Amino acid sequence: MSSAVDDDLWSAIGDPTRRRMLDLLLADGAGTATTLSARLPVTRQAVTKHLVVLDRAGLVRSAPAGREKRYHVDEAQLARAVAQLNSVGAMWDARLRRIKNLAEAIERAKNNKK
Amino acid sequence: MEYGSIERELHIDASPEVVFEVVSRPEHIRDWWSAETEFEPVGGVTSSLTWTDKDTGRVECSPFTVVDVDPPRLFSFRWTYGEGETAAPGNSLLVTFELVPTGEGTTLRFRETGYRERGWEAAALEACYNDHTQGWDFYLPRLADNARRLAAAR
Questions:
Q1: Which domain holds residue B144?
Q2: CATH number of the domain where residue B128 is located
Q3: Nearest CA-CA distance, residue B109 and chain A, Å
Q4: What does residue B25 show for φ and ψ, rounded to 5 degrees?
């Protein structure tokens, strides 16, 4: 997993409109720039640009549908992005374990002095 | 699907007063976060967190602003915003420790929010600290020593 790919992935998913698009694509199964822009407060052109970013990050895949492209979410890639946030959670788990052990050691030492 | 925040809840066999000190005092933050910092626990106070990789000498830094202090119930702060910026919703991650007395001990509720607003770049930044997150095994003996020394000095 190269860091360059990860940067793309993170910034692709870092934008609220793009996350909303992913939510819609997940809910509907698939969508085009037209169907997505109908459900979002942004223009079709803006949606198209966001789709390019998501496509480049591998978060969506497309297939021709008439004059448009029909997009669906690449769930494996999305899972990878979610796993990265989970790894942040794992870091907090380690810190919280340290907080627990430290506080309990202080408490025990206090009680031993009584 | 919500992946904009991290939430945890755990029980600690120590009083809320002790847990509050551990989460909010710079000398303890040094132990559980490996971060050098110095600040007065007062809302609005700004400081920084600094991590130094002992092997490479590489230094990571993040600004830090105390948000709420209500001993021994609540401590919160913001971090991971740009140098020179003022911490606010949208440019930083908000960490909240909420302490609830439970039996002889404390329920610690942890929450980190702001990923959604801030963008996931913050999480990527956080992930790079992972390289510096020293092993539990290395830190634990040091922690226990510090805790004994601190308790003895009371």
A1: 5-152
A2: 3.30.530.20
A3: 10
A4: -95, 130
Dihedral angle over CA of B3, B47, B36, B115, nearest 10: 10
Q: Which of A37, A62, A79 is nearest to B1 (CA)?
A: A79
Q: Does pTM top 0.90 for this prediction?
A: no
Instruction: Say whether residue A48 is in contact with chain B using an 8 A CB cutoff.
Output: no
Q: Which of B123, B140, B154 sits opposite A88 (nearest CB)?
A: B123
Residue B60 DSSP symbol: E
Is ipTM over 0.85? no
Among B24, B32, B34, B106, most A C-beta atoms within 10 A, so best to mutate, is: B32
In degrees, rounded to 5, the angle at the alpha carbon of residue B39 between the alpha carbons of residues B36 and B44 is: 130
pLDDT digits (tens, 9 = 90+) for B58-94: 788 889 999 999 999 999 999 988 888 899 887 888 9
Q: Does A45 touch chain B (CB under 8 A)?
A: no
Span A48-105, pLDDT tens digits: 999 999 998 888 999 999 999 999 988 888 777 766 666 777 788 889 999 999 999 9
* Domains located in chain A, CATH noted: 3-113 (1.10.10.10)
The CA distance from B23 to A79, in Å, is: 32
The pair of structure tokens assigned to B48 is 């920084």
| Total domains present in chain B | 1
Nearest to B120 among A14, A97, A101 (CB): A14
